[in-house]
Amino acid sequence: MKYSIDLKVPSSQAWLDAVMADFDMFLQDHADCERKASAMATSLIAKYPDKPKIIPDMIETAIEELEHFQQVFALMQKRGVPLNRDMQEDPYIKQLTPLTHGGTAETRFLSRMLLGSIVECRGCERFKLVSEAQNDQELRRFYKTLWTSEAKHGNIFVELALHYFDDSTVYNRLHEMMEFEGEVVRNLPIRPALH
Fold first, then answer.
1. What CATH number has the domain bearing residue 104?
2. pLDDT digits (tens, 9 = 90+) for 103-130
3. Domain span at residue 182?
């Protein structure tokens, strides 16, 4: 069953063109994003040990994201692309993070879970675009595998939120956050990065 909702604003052709024009830089950013995604899932476990329903899925998500990092790193090694020396601040995540501030501890928990879904859904959409734009069959297959995994993760965060909050609370907040995310995406600088 699909729990996540569709993005409000699609990624632009200009973004995809920038990625395809400097794919090595995209790979560097992609590797950083996978490391951060694994750390984020782990941090939710550390922050919410009182929410036992999230723990098995967050463990699995953290492991899968780390495996994705391993796979991207292997691709980078094949192509002679080094990891970034320092992980850059992600302007997309920086603009979305305030959505998880304010309110009660419970509303912050809900917003963090839904932000996880939104980021995964955007990753799913963008990996699908990257896969379909590839001439290299190995990269096409790799990014197809990733976008299906991201779709699963996007679903998991909403499904877990529904264990703790009623449907209308979850989906009203998710729609509100998705509207905000769409405005962020519209105004992001175009660069060869996942976000």
1. 1.20.1260.10
2. 999 999 999 999 999 999 999 999 999 9
3. 13-187
